[in-house]
Amino acid sequence: MKVGIVGLSQVGKTTIFSLLTGLEVDLFSQEHQKGTAKVHDKRVDVLAKMYEPKKVTYATLEFFDTPALKIKDIKERTAVFNAIQNVEAMLIVVRAFKNDSVPYPEVEKPIDQLKATLDEFLFRDLDVVTNRIGRLENAKRKLEPKEETELKLLKRIQEALENEQLLSKIGLTDEEKKMLGGFSLTTLKPIGVVVNVDEEQFSEKSYQTKDEVIKLCQDNGFAYVELCGKLEMELNALSEEEKMEFLKELGTDETGIERLSRALYTQFGLISFFTVGKDEVRAWTLRKGATAVDAAGVIHSDLARGFIRAEVIKYDDLVRLGSEKAVKDAGLMKLVGRDYIVEDGDIITIRFNV
Ligand SMILES: Nc1nc2c(ncn2[C@@H]2O[C@H](COP(=O)(O)OP(=O)(O)OP(=O)(O)O)[C@@H](O)[C@H]2O)c(=O)[nH]1
Ligand SMILES: [Mg+2]
């Protein structure tokens, strides 16, 4: 899944992009950057220990860094959103960290930054929708029935946006969403929020307007994660052992970045299934509700085309019983057909014939 990283100026967007993707970036460059981030999943580590494969592959998310949004600056907004039209989800970065040597964004309180960023999302969608309405209304011909339906829907959406409602919250049907698919509407996409705190805020688990930020995220179904960009950068520079030691002192076994990628993955409606063996242990990504034949297709189109059935064992059963054989002997391996709905943590072997 492709995720756009957006926010006001100097909040830590590029820092978080760099931490997520492991790419070295020039903080002063205005280039758009994209990169791939590993989605932390302890289950993959456990499976890798068990199978000792040649290769271990984690699920990934693809991130796109963007230049800062400036409040009510149409030109900047258009540039930012045009550059990430293809993303399927948004990650908003909000700055809580205090540091007078880093210029503050236009509004300082985290809740105000979040609201201002969401306003830009709403304005963007309103721009797109209003343009399209104008084009339909000014068409010098009679509209086709399909266009009439679209126009009616767009007007309803326009009104919602004018009332500052996120489109993900107005109960659009799947058919309506499909009709809007080509417009890449920002507020229809899943949203995650990351608050960049400083060390003091991190250890006190508190920052200005935190309650309001959390409430807004909960009310709208946004993923919410706090992390300290500076601390994460320091962690990054350590060896694996030093890192684990440091994290233990902090009372956790996961970095903020690992927590972030996992939280987004879940909140964006993604699940993982696994394939295992001596060659490779791998996590693959599916949308919740996808079927066994979808899973086959993710691995290779031949596997979907020639799909016969799939063998499924549950990760928890495998770990509890210690081997595939033990799981089979306990009668816990399932043979499933193409319409089986894959569950997070399924270990799948596809039987196929092409
Ligand atoms: N103290 C502190 N500084 C940070 C933290 N995160 C980022 N910075 C610094 O803040 C400055 C801005 O960070 P960037 O990651 O470039 O922020 P940005 O949102 O990409 O900035 P623009 O793209 O210019 O809008 C840099 O000097 C970072 O080193 C943090 O958690 N704590
Ligand atoms: Mg930047």
Automatic annotation (TrEMBL):
Which terms in the Gene Ontology molecular function aspect does this entry carry?
ATP binding; ATP hydrolysis activity; GTP binding; metal ion binding
What keywords is this UniProt entry annotated with?
ATP-binding, Metal-binding, Nucleotide-binding
Aminoacyl-tRNA synthetase recorded as keyword: no
Which Pfam families would you find in this protein's record?
Answer: MMR_HSR1, YchF-GTPase_C
Q: Which cofactor does it need?
A: Mg(2+)
- State the superkingdom: Bacteria
Record-annotated TGS domain positions: 269-352
Alphabetical GO CC annotations of the entry are: cytoplasm
Extract the SUPFAM superfamilies matched here: P-loop containing nucleoside triphosphate hydrolases, TGS-like
From the Swiss-Prot or TrEMBL record, give the protein name.
GTPase, probable translation factor
